[in-house]
Design goal:
Helix content is 39%, strand content 21%. By secondary structure, the chain is α/β, with parallel strands linked by helices.
Length: 313
């Protein structure tokens, strides 16, 4: 291949086409007409001597050659983006910008107040737009439509940058009137009724199967390793709701300690350590390689890390 034939715009087209798998949607993403995008696809096919995308019963499907090109093109575009970024410092005091952050209910309750406090002190012109995991897909983060995602993730795309904000253990919230407090042992824990709470990753959630222990998460996996199983009365994805339910006199809510700590001044509940060992969890921040070298984004990531460190001090 003659490198002189390679138009950088074609690589941008290919990146979006492989992501969207639809000429019309790809054209909309780039602000092009559909004929212009179709012409770009024809040029790409000629350039790589491969159809790249073929129509199947499932829509436009990438060829094997296209799948090989996907990470290479993404890396090249990220390198070019880094090269053309202006080398100017970010002036937080005068900045006017909206940062869109996907945060779980857990992260929003525990981390975001600290971030907002730091922003009000150092960057009063910055606004936060907090989105729920159900609002956002990995594709949104990859495209830079969302600045960062903060949650507990079982897995992340390899192209994403990520950093652990903190590691958290688990605590139990129990009504101050719950008789289980007189003997808070593993046996009494297992005999009680429980509220399950979790929202891992991102995207629209699916229903929970109470018998599928492998998908119930850290608490139930820890019990399963001991051959035990708790009695779950309610499944919820909202930590605030779970913390309110803990006030009921016959329920136990087991959740990350930083969330439980928010109820420390609530006289209606008691915070107790679990009567068995649960491995800690990592709260992670993930972001697109397209934003990695943006000065404002770097500044916001560092502020987020600093807020997390303060929560651990």
């Amino acid at each position: 291949m003659n490198i002189g034939r390679v138009d950088l715009n074609l690589l941008v087209y290919l990146d979006v086409l492989l992501r969207e798998r639809n000429v019309t949607r790809a054209a909309d993403q780039l602000g092009l007409s559909q004929p212009a995008m179709s012409n770009g696809l024809r040029r790409l096919r000629d350039l790589f001597d491969d159809p790249l995308l073929v129509r199947t019963s499932e829509g436009m499907t990438p060829t094997e050659r296209a799948e090989e090109l996907r990470p290479v093109v993404r890396s090249l575009l990220a390198t070019v983006d880094k090269a053309v970024q202006p080398r100017t410092d970010f002036d937080a005091k005068s900045a006017r910008r909206v940062f869109r952050i996907m945060a779980s209910d857990y992260a929003e309750s525990t981390l975001m107040p600290r971030i907002l406090l730091k922003l009000r002190e150092s960057a009063p012109g910055i606004t936060l737009d907090i989105m729920t995991p159900s609002d956002v897909s990995f594709q949104d983060v990859e495209q830079g439509k969302v600045d960062m995602a903060i949650n507990r993730f079982d897995a992340l795309p390899q192209s994403f940058h990520q950093k652990v904000i903190w590691q958290d253990g688990f605590s139990c919230l129990v009504s101050a009137k719950n008789a289980v407090l007189w003997d808070f042992s593993l046996d009494s824990y297992l005999q009680a009724q429980h509220v399950w709470v979790s929202k891992t990753g991102m995207g629209v959630g699916v229903g929970v199967n109470p018998d599928d222990v492998q998908r119930l998460g850290w608490v139930d996996e820890a019990l399963n390793r001991q051959g035990k199983k708790r009695r779950i009365t309610m499944f919820t994805r909202h930590y605030q709701a779970a913390m309110l339910l803990a006030e009921q006199t016959d329920l136990i809510v087991t959740l990350p300690s930083k969330a439980a700590f928010l109820q420390r001044n609530n006289p209606r509940v008691v915070v107790k350590p679990p009567p068995f060992e649960i491995p800690p969890i990592d709260l992670k921040m993930a972001w697109s390689p397209l934003l990695h070298n943006d000065p404002a984004h770097r500044w916001m990531r560092q502020l987020t890390v600093d807020a997390g460190k303060e929560a651990n001090s």
